[in-house]
Amino acid sequence: MAFAPERQSAPARDALDAIITRIGQVVLGKERQVRLALACLLARGHLLIEDLPGMGKTTLAQVLAQALGLQFKRIQFTSDLLPADILGVSIYQPDTKNFVFHPGPVFAQLVLADEINRATPKTQSALLEAMEERQVTSEGRTVKLPEPFFVIATQNPHHLIGTFPLPESQLDRFLLRIEMGYPDRAAERQLLKGRGGRESLAALTPVIRPEQLLALQQQVARVHAAEPLLDYIQNLIEATRKHGAFAEGLSPRAGLALLHAAQAWALLAGRDMVLPEDVQAVGAAVIAHRLQPAKDVAGGRDALVARLLESVPIP
Amino acid sequence: MNPAPDREAFYWLYLTAVCAVLPAVAQLPLWLVAAFSLSLGWRFASDHRGWRRPGRALRTLLLIAIVIAVYRQYGSVLGREPGVALLVGLLGLKFLEIRTLRDYLLSVFLFYLVLLGAYLQEQALWLGAWTLLTVSISLVAMIHVVQPRGLATRAKLKHAALLVAKALPLMLVAYLLFPRIQGTLWGLPADAHAGLTGLSEIMRPGSINSLSESTAPAFRVTFEGAMPPLRDLYWRSLVLTKTDGHSWSRPRAFAAADESFEGLGEPVRYTVTLESSNKPWMPVLDLPAEIPPEGRARNGYTLEFRMAMHERQTYTLNSYPRYRTPPLEPEERAANLQLPEETSPRVRALAERWRHESTEPLAVARAALAHFRQENFVYTLKPPLLGADPVDEFLFDTRRGFCEHYTAAFVTLMRAAGVPARIVNGYQGGEVNAAGNYLIVRQSDAHAWAEIWVPGDGWVRVDPTNAVAPERIEIGSDALRRLAERGVVPGSLAPAAVLKAIELSGLDRVFLHTRLYWDLANLSWYRWVVGYSKQRQERFLTGLGFGEISWEKLLTALGVGGLAILLAYLVWQWRPRPERDPVQAQYLRFCRKLARTGLVRAAHEGPLDFARRASGTRADLAPTIGDITRLYLKLRYGPGELSGERQVLKRAVAAFRV
Questions:
Q1: Is the CB of residue A1 less than 8 Å away from at least one CB of chain B?
Q2: Residues of A in contact with B634 (CB under 8 A)
Q3: Is the ipTM of this complex over 0.95?
Q4: Tell me, which fold does domain A223-315 have in CATH?
């Protein structure tokens, strides 16, 4: 990078660079998505991936877990999935005459909730509550989820028959929303040649331990956000509130999400301070799924957000 | 909005009250000032010491007491002075019952009324400045009570100053365009002009002495063309011919309008701004060639207004410094030779002696002046009192006096010698205000001199004071005062030595200059602000090309002007603001330099992105662009204060060449 870091500790930078390189060996040609996913994880948020099947969503989740040395569980959401199937159940033990809690698949450090929109709202909200509170309450008992705890949910936005799309209020629970997109020609050729992809997963060894990841998460919160940058974030949020193109403006929570994501992005770039570019880099991923285009406005959300980012000057 | 004003609000209100009442204090009775101060003190004590405030009954009693006291003082509760007094008294009481915001604001507005009351007394420059100050303080008071608490005092002061500054253009438009009322602004009541001094119609030796002490300006003069030398500036107001041996006065009858003369050489054109004197006299330079429309002629080429003047007046006219007057009519000749029967034999004998030496009037006059010079006469502003026959006592016993004594004695001697003579009363000289290139003539410049009638030439001015104290005429009345302070007898020193003796110390010179500039400011204030009359307004607007002016048109113009100012203000509000952050200012400067090469940063483009793009296009500049951007990012977005690096950035941007 031409304009490099100033005062960040070298180990953190090296570790992060190594992670990105390692994941990049498996998920080919998707550095941006990888970085965003990693930033989301570092900012202690949860990730929503919207795309068609076969685009590498699951691979991304798995490779993240493996590179970071996280315990990984995958839950395939179906219409008959019940909350207990995710959270776990308390089962009566006749010998001790006690109920013993059997943790469900959500008790993992990285959970992949595949095709979340195929489950019923009741089941969806069970997961979303767990995501928010980072704990599970069952039969009056509260059990903490492991640390770090990171959920990647995927949903197929196009085939909606028999699905329950997440309502806007629930979408807000996800820090970032990304789309995988088709790989470029070179990356696809590599895949066809048998390099990368799920096959190379087995060879992947963890780059860092979970404790190191927790330390990095704490470092994100310490990335400096100066007054002019906070001005910029506020201007952006205000613009969504005044902009005619959106039905409603962004919430204060969205503002915090934008800041945290930008901090994580800055850390990934090896900086100890947030720049407007960081905000712009994560902007679409943070904002787009939280905004609803106004009724008579043409263009997709992403195009609208891009236009919004161009309309707000950097103070 | 705060429901009730707090302690600090009262501090501001006390200050507003004191500032508003101060200009009126001189005209208020002492007991009222005391009552007002006591009310403020009571309020303060009740806020800070928990004193009980008066109840409704006591307040009503106090109110009645004040009304009665004002009535007893002035014999009325109406009119200018009683009105202001009543207002001040009741506002003092108001302090005892202010509870809500409404009371508070009402008091502030009423203090504006008190402040306006001071303008009924005078419309001076300092009062204008004082009003601005008081209004600013009252604005701070109002800002304090309506703004959220915790605003810094500096912020309030700034806010108030801004409000005043914004009001100034509106004030200017209103001032220039608001329809003027013919006459005085408020139709001053008749008691407005008490206690002014000026020349008196009757001269008794000693009556000018009191004038000599007063440095109050009598009038100011602007000359068109060069100003004649001070010693030639004789401003005549009155010509006195009648005498009973003690006093001199004007003839009862009005002068015939055909009093004429022949002007020699070029006339002098000048404009006089006369202070109000409560007298009709119109001081003019010897001798006036015309009668201005507002004046009329009196005896001896003097002019006067048609009535006593209670306000400042301005008039312009021509005078001929050199002139020849026509032969005397027999009755006029008799009037100018008139002497009382009881004129002392010693005086008559002295005059007889000179007449025997020569019958030539000028020779007789020269003999008289030589007598004053040689016989140990002394010029003094504090002469001894004179008794039954002042001329005789002065000439032969005391020999101490000022212009009146010398002139009265001289004219008496001339008449006794058969030369027609008269006294002219007026002013001589003045002080040149180099700052504004005009002349200030003060009451202390009041002077009396003589005119004798010479066949062939007519009336000729003879100033006997000049023989005894040439400094008075050459340098001015101020020189005499300074000589007296230094214990020098006038006429005893050579001119150069006199100038040295009256030289001012450094501090005095500064003081003098300050005074002259202040006088200039005041003159401009009166000529342009207070004296902005209906006629001046019409002239001004006609000068702008407005043709016929009616008040309807003026009000329309006022409305349009107000709207224009409002619009201009809105445009100004929306203007692009200059960057205040020095770091950002430097970076924008850097961007402007790059923009000259066609590399324009988009408003939403981050500095890092821009640097990358710019380095891509201009690889030669890449290292410098990199350095500056890195420094800028660190200063603007990085943690900590790095004031030293600001300078580095500033120098780097200054040195940056595209």
A1: no
A2: 6, 273
A3: no
A4: Helicase, Ruva Protein; domain 3 (1.10.8)
